[in-house]
């Protein structure tokens, strides 16, 4: 089962390269950062775009924000290998600038395909860029930590670990929101 899902994910990754998605971003990046983790995960975490460390290693969330994410996962008794982590935009924008709306738009169909293959119970958006793709018109400062059901999917918008890393108040808010994940998963499993 998981081999089949992994093969499907590999095919999506190959399509991004074959279809030359965002060639100007691809040219300035070292690696395509597609995603990492368990193709059968119940939880998918979606960030906005790779940063410097991610671009170098070809893996999402491996820098300081990734370390913080792993600490929070450990706090709810999960390992990185049990979840799936990806970004909307799969190439690092130059100088870590925010991804442009059209870049997000072009990558969104590939992200949708990833989600269709994995079929997670909960989709955790990390930061406002990721949230806006699925919950447009919302303000992360108002809805972070509140699960939203949209078209049969459950989304949990969270603050971005990178933003919360050096901001005490945001950091605590993110840790508190993160702690609600097991309960949200349980309710989704129970069909509530």
Task: Tell me what you see in this structure.
The protein has 192 residues and is α/β, with parallel strands linked by helices. It has one domain: Uracil-DNA Glycosylase, subunit E (3-Layer(aba) Sandwich). It has 10 helices and 6 strands; from the N terminus they run ααββααβαβααββααα. Helix 1 (2-18) runs antiparallel to helix 5 (101-118). The protein is globular. It starts with a helix and ends with a helix. The model has no long low-confidence stretch (mean pLDDT 95).
- Average pLDDT score: 95
CATH architecture: 3-Layer(aba) Sandwich
**CATH first level:** Alpha Beta
Radius of gyration from CA coordinates? 16 Å
SSE string, helices as H and strands as E: HHEEHHEHEHHEEHHH
How many beta-strand segments? 6
Number of domains: 1
**Order of strands across the main sheet:** 1-3-2-4-6-5
Helix content: 40-55%
Which structural category do the helix and sheet elements fall into? alpha/beta
Shape category: globular
**Percent in strands:** 5-15%
CATH superfamily: Uracil-DNA glycosylase-like domain
The helix tally amounts to 10
CATH-defined fold name: Uracil-DNA Glycosylase, subunit E
- Biggest β-sheet: count, sense, barrel? 6 strands, mixed
Poorly predicted runs: none
Task: For the structure shown, list the relevant keywords.
192 residues, alpha/beta, six-stranded mixed β-sheet, globular
Please give the structural blueprint.
Elements: H1 2-18, H2 23-28, E1 36-37, E2 43-47, H3 52-57, H4 64-75, E3 84-87, H5 101-118, E4 122-126, H6 128-134, H7 140-143, E5 148-150, E6 153-158, H8 161-165, H9 168-178, H10 181-189
Parallel strand pairs: 2-3, 2-4, 4-6
Antiparallel strand pairs: 1-3, 5-6
Helix pairs in contact: 1-5
């Amino acid at each position: 089962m998981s081999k089949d899902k992994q093969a499907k994910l590999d095919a999506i990754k190959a399509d991004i390269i074959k279809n030359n998605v965002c060639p100007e971003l691809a040219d300035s990046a070292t690696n395509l950062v597609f995603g990492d983790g368990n193709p059968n995960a119940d939880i998918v975490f979606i960030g906005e775009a790779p940063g410097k460390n991610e671009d170098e290693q070809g893996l999402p969330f491996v820098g300081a924000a990734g370390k913080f994410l792993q600490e929070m996962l450990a706090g709810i008794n999960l390992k990185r290998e049990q979840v799936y982590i990806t970004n909307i935009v799969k190439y690092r924008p130059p100088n870590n600038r925010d991804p442009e709306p059209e870049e997000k738009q072009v990558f969104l169909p590939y992200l949708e395909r990833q989600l269709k293959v994995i079929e997670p119970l909960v989709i955790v958006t990390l930061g406002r860029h990721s949230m806006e793709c699925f919950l447009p018109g919302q303000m992360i400062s108002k809805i972070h930590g509140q699960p939203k059901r949209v078209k049969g999917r459950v989304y949990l918008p969270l603050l971005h670990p990178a933003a919360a890393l050096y901001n005490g108040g945001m950091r605590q808010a993110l840790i508190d929101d993160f702690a609600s994940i097991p309960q949200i998963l349980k309710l989704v499993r129970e069909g509530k």
